[in-house]
Amino acid sequence: LARDPSAPSGFASIAYQDAIAKTASEIERVQREHGPGAVAVLGGASLTTEKTYLLGKFARVCLKTPFIDYNGRLCMVSAGAANKKAFGIDRTTNPWSDMVGTEVIWVAGSNVAECSPITTNYIWQARELGAKVIVQDPRITPLARTCDVFVPIKPGRDAAMFAGVLQLMIENQWVDEEFISMNTVGFDAVAAYCREWPIARTAEVTGVPARTIRAVAELWGLAKSSFLFHARGIEHHSNGVQNALGTINLVLASGRLGKPKSGYGTIVGQANGQGGREHGQKCDQLPGWRDISNPEHRKYIASVWGVEEKDIPGPGVDAYELFRKIDAGEIKALLAICFNPKVSLPDNQFVTRALEKLEFFATIDFFLNETGQHADIVLPGSLQEEDEGTVTQVEGRVIKINKAVECPGDARADWVIIQDIAKALGREHGFTFDSPRAIFEELRVASKGGVADYSGITYEKIEREMGVFWPCYSVDPRTGEALADHPGTPRLFEAGSFNPVAKGAGPFYFPDGKARFNVAEYRDPIDDASADYPVYLTTGRVVSQFLSGAQTRRIGPLVSQYPEPRIEIHPRLAEKLGIADGEWATCETRRGAVTLRAMVVTTIRPDTVFIPYHWGGPKSANRLTVAAQDPISKIPQYKVCGCRVIKAAGAPDYDATREAQQ
Ligand SMILES: Nc1nc2c(c(=O)[nH]1)N[C@H]1C(S)=C(S)[C@@H](COP(=O)(O)OP(=O)(O)OC[C@H]3O[C@@H](n4cnc5c(=O)[nH]c(N)nc54)[C@H](O)[C@@H]3O)O[C@H]1N2
Ligand SMILES: Nc1nc2c(c(=O)[nH]1)N[C@H]1C(S)=C(S)[C@@H](COP(=O)(O)OP(=O)(O)OC[C@H]3O[C@@H](n4cnc5c(=O)[nH]c(N)nc54)[C@H](O)[C@@H]3O)O[C@H]1N2
Ligand SMILES: [Mo]
Fold first, then answer.
1. What are phi and psi of 573, to 5 degrees?
2. How would you list the strands of the sheet with 39-43, edge to edge?
3. Fewer Cβ atoms within 10 A, N terminus or C terminus of the chain?
4. In angstroms, rounded to a whole number, what is the distance separating the alpha carbons of residues 236 and 639?
């Protein structure tokens, strides 16, 4: 499609080759007039790993721009940054089957039952065998209904909870001193920080009763085996990395890692939340989880790509900063694939204004989403089932998707479209792959020797073994000899294990082989509840909708199940505000206001309201959210800000306000 203001929909169909030619000529023009960095690329973690690899290479080699980032910036990056700091590797530690038979499972900030059904099934199996389950959430989620200890945390206070629990473990000598001294560094500084968190202060800051904090410390402190999982509930914060580090400190202090029934992990979001964050579509990353600022890493990737090291651009900026650069006029053209930022970014009316400033904007999608409405060219991309490729799932297991159907009509495989643009630009070198398999073969070489080493993985091995856990080597990291058939690494950090960074010094991915404790500091949220905005607003998901809703808002039965966003509100707060179940209410923050029906539920803290974010326009939760970001991971603080809720006069006229508010 091409933008056409005279057409009723705003778009007119044009021939595929013309759309590619227009995209290439506009990129060429903008770069000629303003330099290579005036063009930016946005990717996504629903893409196969092959596509994410190709996209990272396309930005650096074909467009020569540093400006590429991806929608995982809104999702996995706090966990990734914490894993890097603590373990030197960014992957869940164990296969999920290890959960069955463990004693305690602690789920912090994850509505697993509605968002991760397969993981939930493992938690249930573990519970059948006697595992005690702790759930930490401001809402009584479906999993929380049947848990052993529910921790009704005030939004944004998780780091305080983790410090308070570790303090109790230290006081009661429930920490594994031998593991700490043999396998870690930095415990003393963490212990000193935790002394600031006696139980009374922890209870006051977190809103969690002291007896509950004690019950958690006792369960966690005395367990012989355990798992701790978290997701966006603790990660979507301006101190999301600190929250994740707080959980890692509890795991390291317990000494329960590298063992069959004990582990730790972040529960991923999108289908390729793991693989999508490893091979170079992040602004500071090269394939194999390499660092774009590291001269050795650059040199190696340059040799794989057949370019000079100096020609690979340096680090770019995170996805939100990229929109600030568009707003400032520094970035003038954008190619986006697998991302709907107009709905999914915080304070999204700013995003809309920025989109309108672009001189040229193209998207590759199989649907025309809200962001695409601002595009000059929409290129018809592919669904996963229309193509072949790999994704890496939550356990770190690389699995393969096989093509089930052909792309309809004029649609093309995403990787074909990307290469067609390179060709039309006359910059074909390195973009002549004839299949996803060919891309994967180059990715294997590019990842070789990196922490995320996929070099020993082949499509055949994935099929044969029902998936392969990375790192999977083609060269023995001990001897440097070629390895015919490395089995992959289902469980990380086992005693005596060998990795190419520690070279046998210990199980963790640092030269001394030791894990790092990091002081995981509590900070009040930015734009916290206050006299003017006295209620906490948190946002997230409902089971029947997916992400920005671009796909699920088209599916009748899913829409019937939950047709529009509602404001979840506790009966006590609802009564105080004079709002009954089903009545219209306005939620207002420092950024904007939305009017939705109230849904009065007893499953939420009385000081907090929850709005799902799967809708755009005047129903969008992200009109309300704050664009505060974690200083390390740059994740947005979606999970808390101050708001006020008032009863609305009646139903809003969404159609009348849509034009003005879009
Ligand atoms: N059905 C469905 N499944 C999905 C998705 C979807 O959109 N729909 N999205 C996928 C994606 S991309 C992702 S990232 C995952 C997300 O999976 P989850 O992270 O499990 O889902 P969320 O709803 O974002 O947030 C989880 C929980 O965090 C809680 N929470 C809010 N604030 C806080 C806080 O300050 N502290 C704590 N401890 N908890 C808090 C919320 O009440 C919510 O229950 O789900 C994936 N699966
Ligand atoms: N307030 C609030 N906001 C949030 C969150 C929250 O909890 N609260 N969660 C955040 C999180 S965790 C995430 S992951 C983001 C997600 O935010 P987005 O990534 O913006 O959401 P999606 O709906 O996945 O949009 C992706 C687009 O890519 C298309 N697409 C999907 N797969 C493919 C593919 O294989 N090829 C092509 N060409 N296109 C594809 C879809 O049709 C859709 O239009 O939202 C974030 N925003
Ligand atoms: Mo996500």
1. -70, -40
2. 11-12, 2-3, 377-380, 360-365, 333-337, 39-43, 68-70
3. C
4. 6
Give me the pLDDT at residue 655, please. 73
Return the structure tokens found at 210: 């002291």
Atom of ligand 1 nearest to the CA of 111: 20
| β-bridge mates for residue 523, sequence order | none
> What is the per-residue pLDDT across 232-265, written as a single tens digit (0 to 9) for each?
999 999 999 999 999 999 999 999 999 999 999 9
Ligand number, closest to the Cα atom of 546: 1
- Are the beta carbons of 538 and 639 closer than 8 angstroms? yes
Rg for the chain, CA atoms, rounded: 25
Candidate of 548, 555, 619, 625 to mutate for ligand 2, largest count of ligand atoms within 8 Å of Cβ: 548
Which tens digit of pLDDT belongs to each residue from 278-306?
999 999 999 999 999 999 999 999 999 99
Quote the tokens at residue 644. Answer: 């006020």
Chain segment 301-352, per-residue pLDDT in tens: 999 999 999 999 999 999 999 999 999 999 999 999 999 999 999 999 999 9
DSSP 156-177: T-HHHHHHHHHHHHHHTT-S-H
Q: Tell me the C-alpha to C-alpha distance, in Å, between residue 532 and each of 490, 527, 536, 602, 642.
A: 51, 11, 12, 25, 8
Residues shown for the chain: 662
Question: Are β-strands 290-291 and 285-286 bridged in parallel, bridged antiparallel, or unpaired?
Answer: antiparallel
**pLDDT of 658 strictly over 80:** no
- Which has the closest alpha carbon to 541: 121, 156, 115, 118? 115
Q: Which two tokens stand for residue 157?
A: 């206070």
Q: Which of 392, 390, 351 is nearest to 373 (CA)?
A: 351
Other beta carbons less than 10 A from residue 649's beta carbon: 9
Helices (H) and strands (E) in the chain, counts: 22, 25
Structure token digits, residue 30? 């903008």
Q: Is the CB of 44 under 6 A from ligand 2?
A: yes
